[in-house]
Amino acid sequence: MRLEGRAALVTGGGTGIGEAVARRLHAEGARVTVSGRREAPLKALADEIGCHWVAGDVSVAADARRMVEGAIAAHGRLDVLVNNAGVVRAAPFGKTGEDVLDLHLGVNVKGTFLVTQAAVPHLTRHKGNVVNVSTNVTVQGVPGFSAYTASKGAVNALTVQLAAELAPSGVRVNCVCPGVVETPIFESMMPPEEVPGRLEALAGVHPLGRIGRPADVAGAVLYLASADADWVTGVVLMVDGGATAV
User: Fold this and answer.
1) Model pTM?
2) How far apart are CA 133 and CA 20, in angstroms?
3) What was the pLDDT predicted at 190?
């Protein structure tokens, strides 16, 4: 029960990595609030594990504040913020429109910025911490993901910047960078009949011989969020089965 007595907010917490993180933090004793744009998966998770939920869009300042305020109202404090909400759209660089770029920058960068900004005053009271969710393609380019990579590279840079800026207040800021993880958002990027074959092919890209599971990322987030990492800040941690090691 490494998080007993603490409260956490997980954005994008209804499915995939966010859901796995919410479940793991809850299992370790945290009182969890999940947020996202779709109410149905948030409500389903809340009904199952007894967490609180707030619907909203992280790229909208009023919604970002409301997520943090909802977590405080539900649990009286905030110790851990996991910025997991994100979008990914694949397109060749030359065919990536301004709307696609704006979408990535709005959700992945602005959303992380706004929710963190709203949360920091509360995190400071309890010397809490922030864990951002990025991607390993920020250090290992993959064709077709220029807008996504640019936005997540900004998340990595923001992690390091805030780690330095917030350290005097006792707030730690770290980041995890997953490789390919089997999630609904990943599977939605290809025709259903191609999913099994694509997953099998991608397993070979990871030296550990398989693609990631949401629980793999949740374990890394738990470590960074817990007292086990009390002297760890500004880390951009690859959680990718060794893909960036080769």
Assistant:
1) 0.95
2) 13
3) 63
